[in-house]
Amino acid sequence: MIALWLAAALAQDDEDYRSHVDQAKFFVRKGWYEDAAMELEAALENDNGELDGQAWYLLAEVRYHLGDIEGAMEAADRAHSNSRTPEELELAAGFSTWLHEQFGLVEVETRFDGVQSSVFIQLESLLLDPELKNYLKDLGVRLAEPRPLPIRFGLPVGTYRVNGRPVEIRASERSTVRIPVRGAAPEALQVTELEGSLGVTAWAGSAARGHYPGPTARIGITQPLGGFVLGLAADWSGRTLTTPDGLRFVPADFGLAARFGVEAARIRDAALRAALSGRVARIGGLGLPCAGDASGVVCAKDATPVAWAYPDSFAIVPGLELSAVVLDRRRTTAVGWGVRIVGEAAFGRRPGSGSARMGPDEIPYTVDAADRPFLLGGVRLMGTVVWAR
Description:
Blueprint: H1 2-30, H2 33-44, H3 53-65, H4 69-81, H5 86-102, E1 103-109, E2 116-117, E3 121-123, H6 130-143, E4 147-148, E5 151-156, E6 158-162, E7 165-169, E8 174-178, E9 193-204, E10 214-225, E11 228-237, E12 240-243, E13 246-249, E14 253-267, E15 270-283, E16 288-293, E17 296-299, E18 307-309, E19 313-326, E20 334-349, E21 353-358, E22 361-367, E23 373-388
Parallel strand pairs: 1-8, 17-22
Antiparallel strand pairs: 1-5, 2-4, 3-6, 6-7, 9-10, 9-23, 10-11, 11-14, 12-13, 14-15, 15-19, 16-17, 16-18, 19-20, 20-23, 21-22
Helix pairs in contact: 1-2, 2-3, 3-4, 4-5
């Protein structure tokens, strides 16, 4: 009785998987390959179906028509392993060899997973086999429908442009191509960022004694290059300082800067960056007491002042910049904002001579050679508006 029940169950199981195969054959005749693949995968989940070499071979053909060359190779290998006749064995082996020799794999991606895009394939090499030409034509029709990226499919051996990006396909090898997507994030190599910044700056050190923090402004251009960032900027700063005659506005500081850094992290639309910077700057108001008389004075740190000199001095200013920039990266032209903090050191040298004020008069001065060099530490904190395209 139990044996009869088991035999009936196995027969029913066998009938179920064969019905899936028959339905798949009907779908193949209609050209409905997605539906055929679903039926065959259901059939091959059956214990008996899993051993059916013909079902595996049919799945290999269906996957081939869908552009799933990797899946077709796998199914052809399973068809070979489960062949029951020499004819089935030869057919499966020939199809598997042809797939491995004629096709490679390409994965198409963009900056963010899940972005939907059409994929357009342009053949740039010669393709003689009519079967491969038909495959490429059918694949192009399927990929013209937008679909989530990344996506992987097979292409005949040759050279192509995928959405304008070049890619070479070699037999049984995998290639990757990153494409720009309209409405998605701009690609790093395509994005140029123009920025305007406003904030506060402050200098510290003996040469900047009496200086107060003041406003600073910067305009610049930033060019990401893959994971790196290059930038140029021009800046202005203003400060007040305490003098023997009261508060005084320091002549504006000006600087030209270059920076090189890395995009340390990206969290959704926010880019976190770290960069080394270098500036050439004119720094004003670095006061020195001066001793002498109306005919001329010498300025030095330890002089007993009869006058004060506040020369404009040039400096080399290396620094470290940390920034965060937020852009709507679903748009090809984006307006965003950011914050940045810059720590820097100024290595400079005061001019050797100039004019200092003694009461209402201007008198000549010279600066003691030992007091011409100076070192300052500085910090700038800025908010930034960014326009990127």
